[in-house]
Design a protein that fits this description.
It is a single chain. The chain has 2 domains: 2-186, Lambda Exonuclease, Chain A, CATH 3.90.320.10; 217-272, no CATH class. The protein is 42% helix and 16% strand. It is built from 11 helices and 9 strands. A 6-stranded mixed β-sheet has the order 2-3-6-7-8-9.
């Protein structure tokens, strides 16, 4: 099995979704990106390329064979700046052999060691909004440490406003716990349940696939006013469809379910992957 640091981005964006990670690893066909997402992708690449132009003596590793080997050799030779490096480390979890792969945008040599830096288009950076970036960089740090038996000098994000923000390296423990939980999702025998939602599913490459399936199954999450927390709560009570909902509840009793379970449903999602 191959786990990529970018799988954290898949989990978090455009919204928290276990199912998206599962489907990608199963090779489920995806819709082509819409024009808006294509524009964002081009702007992101332009932002990264502009940052690249600020460096001299850059080794380009974005193409060609043996990128992981060439990355190790470049670091051992203290190449000043490495663009599109690749790290790889073997990891085992519950008997599953996993190749963990990460590809930081920039490796920058300093007297204290190498900085691992990613360029992102985000203009306001912080853990609640962009936890996927933090996890991705933490995974780069863990891979670096596995390869060279010492932590990276620093982890950094180059933001859409050209700020350089440091992310303290956490020695790999929280990010490996997050990896383990996503591996559990990927290896599950059945497709994990993730309720559809107009806001939640917007921009996802599996949007049409999941909505068609939810409508065909009369999934209660397709009902206007049933948010994802309530859908998960009701499913735990063996209420799977809006037909079940009509048989079991009326407007008054459904409001009581929201009142009773609303707070506890908030733990569903991000908190399971937070350090």
């Amino acid at each position: 099995m191959i786990f990529r640091a970018s799988d954290f981005y898949t989990y978090h964006q455009p919204s928290l979704c276990d199912l998206r990670v599962y489907l990608k690893h199963k090779g489920e066909p995806e819709a082509k990106p819409n024009p808006y997402l294509e524009v964002l992708k081009r702007l992101g690449l332009r932002h990264e390329q502009n940052h690249l132009k600020s460096f001299r003596d850059v080794l380009h590793l974005e193409s060609g064979p043996d990128r992981e080997k060439r990355t190790r050799e470049a670091i051992q030779n203290k190449v000043p700046v490495i663009y599109q490096a690749q790290f790889k480390a073997a990891y085992s979890y519950h008997g599953i052999d996993i190749d963990v792969v990460g590809e930081p945008d920039f490796l920058i040599d300093t007297p204290g060691g190498y900085i691992l830096r990613d360029s992102k288009m985000v203009r306001e950076f912080g853990e609640p909004k962009h936890f996927e970036i933090i996890q991705q960089l933490q995974m780069y740090g863990w891979l670096y440490e596995q390869t060279f038996k010492k932590p990276p000098y620093r982890l950094e994000v180059h933001t859409g406003t050209d700020e350089i923000i440091e992310i303290p390296y956490e020695n790999g423990v929280p990010v490996i716990e997050a990896l383990n939980q996503l591996v559990d999702v990927i290896q599950s025998e059945s497709e994990p349940y993730s309720p559809v939602g107009w806001t939640k599913c917007g921009g996802c490459s599996f949007h049409e696939r999941c909505w068609n399936k939810a409508n065909a199954a009369h999934d209660l999450a397709a009902v206007i006013g049933v948010d994802k927390g309530l859908a998960v709560t009701l499913k735990a009570q063996n209420i799977h469809t809006y037909d079940d909902l009509l048989r079991r509840f009326n407007e008054t009793t459904l409001a009581e379910v929201k009142k009773l379970f609303g707070k506890s449903s908030n733990v569903w999602g991000r908190n399971r992957f937070a350090s």
